[in-house]
Amino acid sequence: MAANFKEIGIDLGTSNTIIYSKDSGVILNEATAIAFDKYDNYEIIAVGNKARAMYGKNPKNIEVVRPLQDGVISDFDSTAEMLEKLIEKALGSKSLKGYRVGIGTPSGVTEVEKTAVSEVVNQIGAREVYVLDEPMAAAIGSGLNVDDSEASMITDVGGGTTDIAIVSLGGTVVSTSIRYAGEKMSESVIAYIRKTKGILIGTQTAEDIKAAVGCAMVGVDENGNEIIRTIEARGRELVSGLPRTFEVTNKDMEDALRESVETIIDAIKSTVEKAPPEIAADIAEKGMMLTGGASLIENFDKIISQKTGMIVVRAENPYEAVAIGACKSLVNSDKLKVYAEIKIRD
After folding, report:
1. How far is 301 from 155, CA to CA, in rounded Å?
2. Helix (H) or strand (E) segment spanning residue 12
3. Alpha-carbon span 156 to 87, nearest angstrom
4. What is the four-CA torsion angle of 197, 202, 206, 208, rounded to 10 degrees?
5. pLDDT digits (tens, 9 = 90+) for 282-306
6. Predicted pLDDT of residue 1
7. Are β-strands 62-65 and 199-200 bridged in parallel, bridged antiparallel, or unpaired?
């Protein structure tokens, strides 16, 4: 490893792509999306947040593609083109010459897809490229000692998937990946508002509601009374077809998100049950780290702790943990041989 190499970590997520620089911190956090002009030879007209802003509003000539669905690359060519443009935007350069790159990918991405993604980054000029599963990257990024003989548990609740893993001695002992995460939660919000209020809302509105009053369990004050928070949102009334403003509370969101939260908790319990007794004893003592954007939902950590009896700690940087870990993993080349699933060097 040359001392003058720069290092970056990339979290290639279903909802967002985050790029972290060892020297500058998070240098890009944009939607995993790309937009093409179908009438102009599929010319790229936008990537990232600008492309996502077009979703649901685009005219016939514009096609907006979200190339990862439920943690799986559904359109590799679009993924490659988007990734190249986002890297260029983050670094201000079309070349990764002089860079070592760690990439965190969802567990559902196949080995063939991981290799293909790493080759794209390599072709942009990266000297070395390493691909890690998101749970391992998140564990490193949140500060867990993944090399210790005492096991650590991580649950990364992303956009498309929730990845749960128990790691020890630099490797994954047992893991679970389910397609219940942030986007499934947004779908549940849309369905709940339609059913209980007779109003149709879009995905972005659901995301905004979830960010504002999303709640896994309503908290209580010192007198035991529920702490209710309310916001206003807008949608289209199903009966009249006209725009309407309505109120949503964190209590509504507790009801809307209950199935997703319970499914994730069941997966956590199942993962612990699959672990060897010695590993389970470590987890009982140390607890579990919680990362991922959806982990920021109010009291998500508390309800997991309540339902499992485990200590649950939300990472200081839950949203960026995968990208940070993908970058930090590059520090020790020998350990990378264990951490990384795919390695490419010039």
Report:
1. 11
2. strand 6-12
3. 24
4. -120
5. 999 999 999 999 999 999 999 999 9
6. 38
7. unpaired
Identify the CA nearest to 194 among candidates 237, 229, 136, 163: 237
Concatenated DSSP letters for 160-219? S-EEEEEEETTEEEEEEEES-SHHHHHHHHHHHHHHHH-EE--HHHHHHHHHHH-BSS--
**CA gap 187, 193 in Å, rounded:** 10
**pLDDT on residue 219:** 93
Tokens of 53: 């802003």
Euclidean distance between CA atoms 279 and 240, whole angstroms: 57
CB 94 within 8 A of CB 2: no
The values of phi and psi at residue 266, to 5°, are -60, -40
Q: How deeply is 259 buried, as exposed, middle or buried, from its count of CB atoms within 10 A (0-12, 13-18, 19+)?
A: middle
Q: What is the rounded average pLDDT for all residues in the chain?
A: 91
pLDDT of residue 3: 46
Query: 261 — phi, psi (to 5°)?
Result: -65, -45
Token pair 């010695």 in the structure block, residue: 278
Do 329 and 150 touch, CB atoms closer than 8 A? Answer: no
Q: What is the DSSP letter of 51?
A: H
Asked if 198 and 309 count as a contact pair (C-beta separation under 8 A), the reply is no
Instruction: Write out the two tokens for 267.
Output: 């997966």
Distance between CA 341 and CA 346 in Å, rounded? 17
What the block records as the tokens of 182 is 């942030």
Which amino acid appears at position 44 of this protein? Answer: I
Q: Residue 259 corresponds to which amino acid?
A: E
Q: How do beta strands 199-200 and 230-237 pair? A: antiparallel
- Say whether 307 sits in a helix, a strand or coil: helix
- Would the pTM of this model clear 0.70, i.e. be above it? yes
Strands 152-157 and 288-291: what pairing?
A: parallel
Helix (H) or strand (E) segment spanning residue 314:
strand 312-314
pLDDT, tens digit, 9 for 90 and up, residues 52-88: 999 888 888 999 999 988 888 888 889 989 999 999 9
The encoded tokens of residue 30 equal 């944009």
φ, ψ at 26 (rounded to 5°): -70, 120
Both tokens assigned to 10:
């990339």
pLDDT digits (tens, 9 = 90+) for 133-144: 899 999 999 999
Q: Which DSSP symbol is given to 226?
A: B
